């Protein structure tokens, strides 16, 4: 009687095992599909903002390089007739970068993209740049906290023809003394002094890395255009 029931028991066990294995495989396949879909969405979002973010990062690193290596504010600061424009355009480049960073952050914050390597690299560099601005390791000059970075970015966001974009310079120039007045006053002294230069150098290097990551094939920005400012100066 026991011997007769053995094949039935084995058949039942085999069926249960097959069911469990099938369920495990199905769960893994579902997770893999979801992961691949999330990765594809993350890469799609990055592709949408790759060029404007790269352009904003390039413009800001270029201005920082000019300040650090080419004495931009010595040449165009007061009493030069274009001193105010020199300051406004610098503020715009900082705000523009925060603007495109905030747009990308909003679109990508709820996506899970553990395998999206390009997206991870970009987000990682953005976090390093944000940390470089907010830390007090360089003192308080040009220190912009995370909430301030986001607030500036939010103020830069506009909608045109159903598309979310970053405010252009013409509109920023009109609003610089109004909407951005408090921030402008806070950073004016920091930009014109040398105490913020160490922070600027670190940010400029990270921005160069970000541009290189976004433009891996050097389609728009050549290596010659991405010059790094010296990280340290020899003692006088």
Cross-sheet strand order for the largest sheet: 1-2
Could you estimate the helical fraction of the residues in percent?
A: 55-70%
Reported for the largest beta sheet, the result is: 2 strands, antiparallel
Count of all domains: 1
Poorly predicted runs of 5 or more residues: none
- How are helices and strands ordered from N to C? HHHHHEEHHH
Judged by helices, strands and strand pairing, the structural class is mainly alpha
Overall morphology = elongated
Number of strands: 2
Task: Give the averaged pLDDT, no decimals.
Answer: 84
- Give the N-to-C terminal Cα separation: 100 Å
How much strand content do the residues show? under 5%
Treating each run of at least 4 consecutive H or I residues as one helix, how many helices? Answer: 8
What can you tell me about this protein's structure?
By secondary structure, the protein is mainly α. It has one domain (2-225). It is 70% helix and 3% strand. Strand 1 and strand 2 (163-166) form a beta hairpin. The mean pLDDT is 84.
Outline of this structure?
The chain is mainly alpha-helical and 236 residues long. The protein has one domain (2-225). 70% of the residues lie in helices and 3% in strands.
């Amino acid at each position: 009687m026991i011997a007769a029931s053995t094949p039935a028991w084995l058949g039942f066990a085999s069926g249960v095992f097959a069911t469990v294995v099938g369920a495990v495989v199905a769960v893994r396949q579902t997770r893999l599909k979801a992961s691949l879909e999330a990765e594809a969405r993350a890469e799609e979002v990055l592709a949408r903002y790759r060029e404007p973010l790269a352009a904003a990062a390039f413009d800001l690193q270029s201005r920082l390089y000019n300040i650090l290596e080419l004495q931009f504010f010595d040449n165009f600061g007061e009493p030069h007739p274009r001193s105010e424009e020199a300051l406004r355009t610098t503020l715009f480049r900082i705000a523009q970068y925060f603007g495109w960073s905030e747009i990308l952050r909003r679109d990508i914050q709820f996506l899970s993209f553990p395998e999206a390597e390009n997206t991870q690299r970009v987000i990682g560099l953005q976090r390093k740049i944000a940390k470089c601005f907010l830390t007090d390791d360089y003192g308080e000059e040009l220190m912009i906290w995370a909430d301030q970075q986001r607030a500036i970015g939010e103020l830069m966001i506009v909608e045109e023809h159903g598309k979310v974009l970053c405010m252009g310079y013409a509109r920023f120039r009109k609003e610089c003394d109004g909407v951005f007045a408090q921030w402008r006053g806070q950073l004016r002294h920091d930009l014109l002094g040398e105490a913020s230069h160490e922070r600027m150098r670190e940010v400029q290097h990270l921005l160069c890395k970000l541009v290189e990551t976004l433009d891996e094939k050097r389609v728009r920005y050549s290596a010659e255009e991405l010059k790094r400012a010296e990280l340290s100066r020899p003692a006088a």
